[in-house]
Write a structure and sequence with these properties.
Strand content: 15-25%
Number of domains: 2
Shape: elongated
CATH superfamily of the largest domain: SPOUT methyltransferase, trefoil knot domain
Helix content: 25-40%
CATH architecture of the largest domain: 3-Layer(aba) Sandwich
CATH class of the largest domain: Alpha Beta
Oligomer: single chain
């Protein structure tokens, strides 16, 4: 797996789980943040190579790598069953989020707000790509993430494990204040184009809408997800 960007690579080197095999840095570039990466890598025995910028562009698949690329051992996502075994208090499910920038932004906020696990559909959903890891500022490396099949079936399985399902929907009639913070929650965030799909909405115990007081009728999904997650955090609905 390839990741790039200063924050993402720094997080990977500071985390015990991801295995960084090699660091590539643009030859001739030097600043305090790159030096911190070099020092962290050498402290962990990770080889550091200085290469031309074109080589990093090819490796990252983009020139937007901030002069640092990391080669990591092929990490494996968790399974749905492994996530259930940890009994997380809040699970985030993403229903058709296809833009890597949106997914990365949601993961960054989710990790900061205390969400413990993320469930991503295998189809019609962005995967965990280098761009996602970079936008997440490395937060994707700290979350338990699993791929799932049918989202409705997954919600029904979660209900059998005593989770209450919460959908974020513009037409929702519920508010966060109606949710008991002691409950285990499975929160569904819809994709860029369709939001939470109708059949998925039907399987949500709560449909939460955010108050909109201005002329704009909707928010970017990562912004809306962040508002909801921090509302839940303030009410004590997150384990941390």
């Amino acid at each position: 797996m390839i990741i790039h960007g200063i924050n993402a690579v720094t997080e990977a080197l500071q985390d015990e789980k991801p295995t960084v095999e090699k660091i590539l840095i643009t030859r001739g570039r030097a600043n305090a943040r790159l030096q911190k990466i070099i020092d962290l890598a050498r402290a962990r025995g990770v080889p550091v190579q200085f290469q031309p910028q074109e080589a990093l562009n090819r490796k990252a698949g983009s020139p937007r790598h901030q002069d640092v690329v990391a080669e990591m051992s092929a990490g494996t996502l968790a399974s749905f069953e492994e996530i259930l075994d940890t009994d997380p208090k809040l699970i985030l499910l993403l229903d058709g989020v296809e833009d890597p920038r949106n997914l990365g932004a949601v993961l960054r906020t989710a990790e900061a707000a205390g969400a413990e696990a993320i469930l991503l559909p295998r189809h019609h959903s962005c995967g965990i790509t280098p761009a996602v890891v970079q936008v997440s500022a490395g937060a994707a490396l700290h979350l338990k993430i699993a791929h799932i099949g049918n989202l409705v079936t997954t919600l029904e399985k979660l209900k059998k494990q005593d989770y209450w399902t919460v959908g974020l929907d513009m037409q929702g009639k519920n508010t966060v204040r109606e949710i008991d913070p002691k409950l285990k929650l499975a929160v569904v965030i819809g994709g860029e184009h369709r939001g939470v799909r109708p059949l998925v909405r039907q399987h949500c115990d709560f449909l939460i809408s955010l108050p909109m007081k201005g002329r704009v009728s909707s928010l970017n999904l990562s912004v809306a997800a962040g508002i909801l997650l921090y509302q839940l955090l303030e009410r004590g609905a997150v384990a941390r």
